[in-house]
Structure formats: structure tokens, C-alpha cells
Recover the amino acids of this structure.
């Protein structure tokens, strides 16, 4: 019971945190780091971009992690798409039959352009 004219002390409430914004931030960072694993970071980046956009559209109080998540996710998607286009263009170049008419020359192109890819030694 309080006396008239006096208020009881109530501590300030902790700031509201948006789980969508935090999840977007984490998935955006994971997406950037996951690009080195054969472009596997593009999947969490897409999810992070969607969650961050949803958080920003809902106008949650905790906007900074949502913005970081959207930026990291978008950056991961742009870098991943660029790497994918580059890899596919190199693969299409090696598959060009006008430039490399026989199988051994195409295999040599693949070995030269993609030295990290180990081919099987068993002929087909």
C-alpha cells in the first residue's frame, strides 16, 4: 500500500527485441560465411533476406539487426550469384564443341579451368 501522492518504484522494462531481426542478422552472417562451402550460404541468405524484410515491414522496435541482416543477406546473394554465373560461364566454355571438338580437349579445359575439381580416373 502506498501513501497518497507517492508512486511505487517499478524498474524500466528491458527493450523489446525482435526475433525476426535477430534471426535475419544471424542468417545473413552465416550466408556470407557459407559462400566458401560451394555456395551453400545462398540458402540461409535467402531466408535471412525474407525474415529481415518481414521485420522491417512490421516496423519492429529493434531495427538495427534487421538492417544488418538484410544487407548481409543481399551481399551474400549478389556475391553468390556472381560466382555462380562465372562458374557456369567457364563450364559452358569448356563444353563448347566448336572450340573443343573431342572429349580429351574438353577434359583438358575442365582440368585447366577448375584445378580444384578432381575427376575420376575411370573412363566411361
Amino acid at each position: 500500500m502506498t501513501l497518497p501522492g507517492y508512486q511505487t518504484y517499478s524498474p524500466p522494462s528491458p527493450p523489446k527485441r525482435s526475433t525476426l531481426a535477430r534471426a535475419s542478422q544471424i542468417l545473413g552472417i552465416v550466408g556470407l560465411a557459407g559462400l566458401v562451402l560451394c555456395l551453400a550460404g545462398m540458402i540461409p541468405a535467402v531466408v535471412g533476406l525474407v525474415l529481415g524484410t518481414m521485420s522491417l515491414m512490421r516496423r519492429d522496435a529493434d531495427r538495427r539487426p534487421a538492417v544488418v541482416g538484410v544487407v548481409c543477406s543481399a551481399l551474400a546473394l549478389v556475391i553468390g550469384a556472381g560466382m555462380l554465373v562465372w562458374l557456369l560461364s567457364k563450364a559452358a566454355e569448356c563444353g563448347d564443341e566448336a572450340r573443343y571438338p573431342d572429349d580429351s580437349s574438353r577434359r583438358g579445359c575442365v582440368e585447366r579451368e577448375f584445378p580444384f575439381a578432381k575427376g575420376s580416373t575411370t573412363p566411361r
Notes: The first helix runs from residue 19 to 33.
